[in-house]
Amino acid sequence: MSLRRISLFDILNGLFLLALTLVVIIPFWYMLAVSFSPVSESLGGRFYLIPKEFLLEAYQYLFSTDRFMKSIGNSIYITAVGTAFNIIVSITLAYALSKKTLPGRKLILLMMLFTMVFSGGMIPKYLLIKWLGLLNSYWALILPAATNAFTILVMKTFFQNLPESLDEAARIDGAGEVRILVSVVIPLSMPIIATFSLFFMVSHWNEFFGAIIYLSDNAKWPIQVLLRLMVVVGETKIGSESTLDFEMVSKVGDNVKMAAIIVAMLPIVVVYPFLQKHFAKGAMLGSIKE
């Protein structure tokens, strides 16, 4: 067996990919190193990749703060409930639109396509949420993001590509639409469901702008809003915001800030490997129509 000759292009390409990998990894590694360093070392502003002293005081401080733990709980609740709501709405609507016998199917599809091009804007959306009585409620973040046209169209295409013989066999056995959806369609659609579950989870976990606009009670803020207080306010020492009863504003160090960022990223980083195997397959199957 002859060995493949390594060309100059292969070497340059490998070096480029290695440099690109380091550019992506080093910032995260730096945050991790700073989070395990003592306050005195992190406040010095020195760049290092290995802490001189390995300590857990930043994480101990974070998890001993009620405000931080409350924000983590808020984000978990918004992400869990929001993702479940997104998936239920998306699957049921996409499955209904995949049936050509649905009355008004084309009109509904046109209305959905319209939302991909035009939007009411931030002020009408705020007035609508206020009129519905959802201000200062988690549902102000969940209901407006129940689904989107892109998700529905991809799922609809996926459902249409499923063999019709499975649907016919289930009907012969006496199954109705709900039974067919739960027992036949959903088990075969796990790749695309996992793909969009990941999309929805990331979107809800990173919720920031909507929380600032709709949630006036800071006890209901998700972790991303609290990170802004720690990173931005903690650096500039804005006195007007120090009245928020947040201890870290006055004495937070870079190690605590980095530890908070690491903790905020950790749930998505942990979940992603379990959904990765479905990710590419689900995206491709839902975007191709036979």
From TrEMBL:
Residue ranges the record marks as coiled coil: none
Membrane topology: Multi-pass membrane protein
Membrane-spanning residues: 12-32, 76-95, 107-126, 138-159, 180-202, 256-275
InterPro entries: MetI-like (IPR000515), MetI-like_sf (IPR035906)
GO biological process: transmembrane transport
SUPFAM superfamilies, alphabetized: MetI-like (SSF161098)
Name of the protein in question: ABC transporter permease
